[in-house]
Amino acid sequence: MSKSAYNHLLPVYPLIAQQIVDDYQITAGKCVDIGTGPGYLGIELAKITLLEMYFLDSDAETLQKARENVRVNGLGNVVHFTHADVASLPFDDNFAELVISRGSLWFWSDQIKGLQEIYRILKPGGTAFVGGGLGRYTPPTMRRRLQGRGRKRLEKEGEGSFLKGAALEKLVRKTGIMCYRLIADEEGEPEHWIEIKKLYQEE
Question: Are 201 and 124 in contact (CB under 8 A)?
Fold first, then answer.
């Protein structure tokens, strides 16, 4: 994903980070930001939590940009940078309280395995929030300005496959993960987010 694709969305990252904190109340422990890109979402989440952050991306150059952005922001959190693919995460089972990912799902070479790996590394009681919307806190005027810009440009360039709604549901069902729900930014709109939870005791 190009630099411009990230930069035009800069205003929404603090809003999505706040939504994650408000919804899941996970403010300590380990958080893995999958497909972090320049690290924007993980940085904003770190600013308002005590989470130990793992910035992970399969592209070494992009991960270096995340490292630079973290340094510039002067985060007080413990931070790590991991060069890896989501389909083969280098973490133990039950590793993280929280896994986040915005905008990378559509570029994974193996989406099913990637979601299964995310589930594997979640601790019991943990949550994953994976997808590509603008978040429900984005004001209507900003939403109208930003909605679909990155998607349309990338589809024109032949990059990515932007699953949503029923197609996203079909994907998650193939993973065998049972405890999930799809989330839309606005009522009546197709879902762009997957929420995955790992129960304390599996049935």
Answer: yes
Q: Which of 35, 22, 145 is nearest to 83 (CA)?
A: 35
Confidence of residue 194 (pLDDT cuts 50, 70, 90): very high
Cα 178 from Cα 172, distance rounded (Å):
9
Q: Which among 118, 126, 159 has a CA at the least distance from the CA of 35?
A: 118
Q: Which of the four CATH numbers 3.20.20.370, 3.40.50.150, 3.40.50.720, 3.40.50.300 does domain 3-197 have? A: 3.40.50.150
pLDDT tens, position by position, 15-27: 999 999 999 999 9
Rounded to whole angstroms, the Cα distance separating 194 from 130 reads: 5
User: In the chain, what are the domain boundaries?
Assistant: 3-197
Q: How far is CA 26 from CA 7, 97, 113, 137, 196, in A?
A: 27, 7, 25, 18, 14
Q: Please give the model's pTM, rounded to 2 decimal places.
A: 0.90
